[in-house]
Amino acid sequence: MAAHLHPNAGSAAFRHRVLAVIFRKVFAPFSLRFVASAEQYSEHPIGRAIAMHATEMGLELGAARALRSITSRGVSCEISRRPLLLGNRAWMTQHGVVIGAEQEEQIAAHEATGKTVVIVSLDHTLSGIVAMGDSVKREAAAVVKQLGLWGIEVWMVSGDNERTVRHVAHSVGIERFVGGVTPEGKKTKLAQLQAEGHVVAMVGDGINDAPALAQAQVGIAVGSGTEVAIETADVVLMKSALRDVCITLELSRTVMRRIRLNFAWATGYNLIGIPLAMGVLFPVWHARMPPMFAGLAMALSSVSVVVSSLFLNGYRPSELPQPEADVDVIVKY
């Protein structure tokens, strides 16, 4: 039975979203303040990054009215009584916003280099895009390589567009990836692999990952993620270091090996000790174990198991293999 680790392509799984937010007036002039005003309420890494970037620029954010957010689609609201849409292509099409060929070419150009693009419509007119550069965590490629050495198939299942997911996946050595997936789609993908007989672990941090974390045999949430993800997961990593994913898997295997060793030792010890204490040798050799020694032997059985378990304190994580190339940053501005 193969094991699959499904890293989410979000902020804490394999890359930082808050490295850089680049606002470009590509189609028509409009203010980043409008976009950040809508995203300031968001728990999604993209929204938080945009709002943080605007705050760092000293922009004064306004109040968003009639705010509506659809997972894996986008946001609609009113800022200063002006209708605003933020989201992907499907969200724009749903609201009748037309994306021209030239504009689509510009969007695709950003996505091809690994950027996440948020399309913006102001006053029912396509107004621009917010292109976000993603940074791969330094140990990401090493973690993927280590999982592969352990025989674990690594997938990237993300709600980001296919171009961005492909770029990030290739950068860290992931061969299996799926982009443009909704939260329910992630859950369906995991269920499909489970139906094929695979054991699935899911690493995620966002609210969009909660259904998949619940579906997986082992859900691993990053401590910096949303409360929903943390509550849903079976394991919570206290730090955002990807190396902790490998440590979690390696440590769990080490603990299980020790449990099996203790079980085998205790079983063999008692299979020999109990008959001796009962006097099984007395009819033949007239030898028997005094009760005081039998009691001491029983105590030593428990002590030996405890001492064996204490050896786990000597656990040290294995060193990660060196990646073939430094993929610390995908896009530099």
TrEMBL record:
Matching Pfam families: Hydrolase (PF00702)
An annotated GO cellular component: membrane
Cellular localization per UniProt: Membrane
Membrane spanning stretches: 263-286, 292-312
UniProt cross-references to InterPro entries, sorted A to Z: ATPase_P-typ_cyto_dom_N, HAD-like_sf, HAD_sf, P_typ_ATPase
NCBIfam families: ATPase_P-type (TIGR01494)
A molecular-function term among this protein's GO annotations: ATP hydrolysis activity
Protein name: Uncharacterized protein
Keywords, alphabetical: Membrane, Metal-binding, Transmembrane, Transmembrane helix
